[in-house]
Write a structure and sequence with these properties.
This protein has about 120 residues and is mainly alpha-helical. It contains 6 helices and 3 strands, in the order αααβααββα. The protein has a domain of about 80 residues: Arc Repressor Mutant, subunit A (Orthogonal Bundle). It starts with 17 loop residues before the first helix and ends with a helix. InterPro entries: ArsR-like_HTH, HTH_HxlR, WH-like_DNA-bd_sf, WH_DNA-bd_sf.
Length: about 120
């Protein structure tokens, strides 16, 4: 039975497994990031914003054929709430809003690029 418990095989310097499994452990942090980027359109949004310093909603919609305005708005709001993107409203008429990656969003991009390279290699 102990052979099938994989979390016991995770290398940690301390004997305390809460480092890995506790509420502030490695698993919790990785799961949080996975929740932040889960959703059909979140990764395309992040990759598009990493390629441009800022983008307007209509530009994002044009670059992602098949996304509805509702889903784009929902994913943009979630990414903003998670601190990965920043919304800038110019308060003009007609409305002008731009999005860009935050520092946290830029810090996440090397991780996503590493995941891409991992996928290409397997």
């Amino acid at each position: 039975m102990l052979d099938t418990i994989t979390h016991l095989k995770v290398p940690v310097e301390q004997k305390d497994r809460s480092v890995c499994l506790g509420p502030d452990g490695s698993v919790a942090h990785v799961a949080r990031v996975m929740r932040m980027i889960s959703g059909r359109w979140k990764l395309p949004i992040l990759f598009r914003l990493s390629a441009e310093p800022f983008m307007r909603t209509l530009q994002l919609k044009r670059d992602m054929p098949g996304i509805s305005q509702k889903m784009l708005t929902q994913h943009l709001r979630e990414l903003e709430q998670d601190g990965l993107i920043e919304r800038r409203d110019f308060g003009e008429q007609p409305p002008r809003v731009e999005y860009r990656l935050t520092g946290a969003g830029r810090a996440l991009m090397p991780v996503l690029m590493a995941a891409r390279e991992f996928s290409r290699g397997n």
